[in-house]
Give the backbone structure.
Amino acid sequence: MRIGIPKEIFPGECRVATTPEVAEKIKKLGFEVVVESGAGDGASFSDDAFREAGVAVIENAAEVWAGSDIVLKVRAPSLAEVDLMRQGGCLVSFIWPAQNPELMDKLAATGGTVLAMDSVPRISRAQKLDALSSMANIAGYRAVIEAAYHFGRFFCGQVTAAGKVPPAKVFVIGAGVAGLAAIGAAGGLGAIVRATDTRPEVKDQVKSMGAEFVEVEYQEEGTGVGGYAKIMSEGYQKAQADMIARQAMDVDVIVTTALIPGKPAPKLITVGMVKSMKPGSVIVDMAAEQGGNCELTVPGEVVVRHGVTIIGYTDLPSRLARQSSTLYATNLLRLLEELCPQKDGNIVVDMDDEVIRGATVIKDGIITWPPPPPKIS
Ligand code: NAD
C-alpha cells in the first residue's frame, strides 16, 4: 500500500505527520511512502531529506491524496481536503469527532476508514500511540518557554554583584500531562513551582517533581469518569477560588491547563485575580481553545490586561514543530505496526482489538464513533 503525507494547510500549522527517519521505518513495514513537496518545511525537514530517506516527493496535494491508500495527517482535514480523498481510502489524523459532525459525515461518504488519534484509548497498552499525551507534554514545556520570554525577570534566583535576584514563583493549575511538563520545565529554569489539581492522585506526582502541591481546603473526590476531572461542587469552587486568589497575589507566573472532557474549560482566574497580580506577571492559559481558564484570555493571542501578560496561544505544539512532528510521527508508526503485524505493506483494521476499535471512528463508510463502553471484567 502507498502512504501519503500532504502538507498541513491549517494557517500557521508547522507540524508534519512523518519525518524522514520515521518514513524509513514505515517503509520497513512494506509500505511505499510519498510526501507533498514542502510538507516538512515548517518543521525543518526538507524535501531533500525525505528523498534521501527513499521517500518520493510529489508537487501536488491532489496527487498525494488521490494516489495514496492511506493518508497520514496532523490536523483534521478541511472539507475541501476530503474532496481529494480516494474513495474507500484510509485516513489517520486528529479528527475530534464530537466537535466535527459535518466532517464525519463527509468522510463517511468516501466509503473509507478513518482512525482518529484523539480517540486512541488512554490505557497502558496504548501509551506508545498516545498522541494527546505527546502533544500535551510539548505544549506544557512550550507554555513555560513562552512565559519566560514574556516575563521581564530571571526564573532562577541569583546573587550577583549588582544585587540579589529572587527566583520567580510559578503556579500550575491542573497537573495532568501538560501541567506536569510545565512543572518540569519551570523547575528546570530554576523557578519555585507550586501546583494544584482537583484529582487527589496527582499530589504525589507533583511532589516527586520537586514542586509544592497546594490543597483546596474542602473535602471532595475530584476524579470523575475514566480517571479524568469532573465539574466540582459550588462549595469546592468557592474554596478553590479563595486559594487561587491568594496564589495570584503571590506568584509571578500562572500556567493553567484545567480541562474537563466534553465541557467548556472551568473559569478559575477572574478579572479581580488578574488585577491583584504584580505588574509584569504572566498567565499562560493552555485551555484557551476550550474557552479559557482565565476570564480575560483571548484565544490565539497575547494580550496585556491590568499590567499582566495573558498568553492564549492555541498552537503550542506547532511552536516546537520539529519535536512535535518527531513524536507524532512515532505515535503514527506505532499505530501502523499494530495495523500491519505481518509487515507486508497491508493494514488490517481489527475491530476486536480494543485500541484499534477505540481509534476507528469510521469503518468502510460507516460511522463507528463513539465506541461501545469498555467491558467490565
Ligand atoms: P486534561 O488535559 O483533560 O486536564 C488537565 C488537568 O486539569 C487534569 O489533571 C485535571 O484533573 C485538571 N483539572 C480539571 N479541572 C480542574 C479544576 N477545576 N481545577 C484544577 N485542576 C483541574 O488531562 P490529561 O493531562 O489529558 O490527562 C488526565 C487523565 O488522563 C488522568 O486520569 C491521566 O492518568 C490519564 N492519562 C492516562 C494515560 C494512559 O494511561 N495512557 C495517558 C495520559 C493521561
User: Anything to note?
Assistant: The chain is about 30% helix and 15% strand.
